[in-house]
Structure formats: C-alpha cells, structure tokens
Design a protein that fits this description.
200 residues; mainly beta; Porin; 1 helix; eight-stranded antiparallel beta barrel; elongated
Length: 200
C-alpha cells in the first residue's frame, strides 16, 4: 500500500513538473502558428483494460479477481509537426501496477499520425499501431502483440487537449500457468494531454 502511494506521488510530481515547464516554455506561442518542427507532449489519463479484467489468482481458499481499472496512465509523445494540421509522433503509454487494485502493468510503444480537420482547430484525430506488452510481475508476462491505436482529442486551450484513445488487437499468451487471459485486448483511456510545442 505504501509503495503504491509513493509510486503515485512520484509519477504525479514528474507530471506536474513537466506541465509547469511546458507552460513556461509555451507562454508566448499559439497552436495555430503554421510552424514546422519537433514537438513533445505528456499526459495523464485513466482507463480500462479488458485484458486486465480477466486476471485472477487462487488466494488461500478462494479465487481473487482483479479489476480492469487503470488509475495511472502516463502518455508521452515525441514527433514532428509538418503543418498546422498534420503531425507524426512516437507514443509511449505506461501503466504501472497498483497493489491495491491490480499487479497488472502495461507498456505500449507505437507510432501515430495526427490530423486536425476543418478550420476550427478544436478537434484532433489520430491513428497508428504499436507494440503492447503486459505483465503481472517482473518475470510473469501476461501477453504481448501489435495493437492498433485510434483516438480523438478536443483542444480546449492553445496547448492542452482532452484525449480519448483506444488500443485494440490480439495478444500472444504469456508465460503464466494457468493462463486466465483472453487473446483479445481493448484498452480505453481518457485524460489531459499537454503539448510542449515545436522546437526548431
């Protein structure tokens, strides 16, 4: 319990330090500038994993089932802005284990293309694919495979957006015996993404 609280505090501190830095760095920039360059973003989301919801173990005389709820999801992005409407970025989504909810943890590394349709610059659409790996301990792998990602974001300020992202696809079974996990994963997360901006 204490380790989970410490982990949560540490991740929250990293997130808010990064957010403070990005606010300072972007105080004089607007997202509508037609600039090209390197972009970076970080976000904090919560979500649900259908794969994680199937995890269960025998605890003394009864079966203990774990939740698919993912309370901590860190979403980091690094890429290139081609125009005010198109960008391509690598994404890293990390969800650590929380002992009070589930030892299930995930790591997703992928590539996404983002498009801002229309003239309002309020909506961002993105899609791509990446490598997903899930574990329930350092040595026990619960599944891995290539998952597609699709998302939509609402840009409510110059640099911040509320994003909904879905990861979906089939996973190969891990080394857990017996294996309670299905081959299909649908991972849904939603939260705030803050773009640092473009650095020439």
């Amino acid at each position: 319990m204490k380790s989970a609280i410490f982990s949560l505090k540490r991740l929250s501190l990293i997130f808010f330090v990064g957010l403070t830095f990005s606010v300072h760095a972007q105080s004089k920039r607007t997202m509508h500038d037609d600039q090209k360059g390197l972009m970076a973003a970080i976000g904090y989301t919560i979500g649900y994993s259908s794969h994680a919801s199937h995890y269960e173990i025998m605890d003394l005389i009864k079966i203990k089932k774990f939740s698919g709820l993912r309370l901590i999801n860190i979403d980091a992005r690094l890429g290139w802005v081609f125009t005010s409407k198109y960008s391509l970025y690598a994404t890293w989504k990390l969800s650590p284990a929380i002992t009070t909810i589930s030892p299930y943890r995930t790591d997703y590394k992928g590539l996404s293309l983002a498009v801002i349709p229309g003239r309002s610059h309020k909506i961002t659409l993105n899609a791509g694919a990446g490598i997903y790996q899930s574990k329930v301990s350092k040595t026990e792998k619960s599944g891995d495979g290539v998952l597609g990602n699709i998302g939509i974001g609402y840009n409510f300020s110059e640099n911040a957006s509320f994003d909904l992202v879905v990861l979906t696809g089939n996973l190969k079974p891990g080394n857990i015996e017996p294996n309670p996990f299905p081959s299909k994963e649908t991972n849904i997360s939603a939260g705030i993404i803050y773009q640092f901006g473009q650095f020439r």
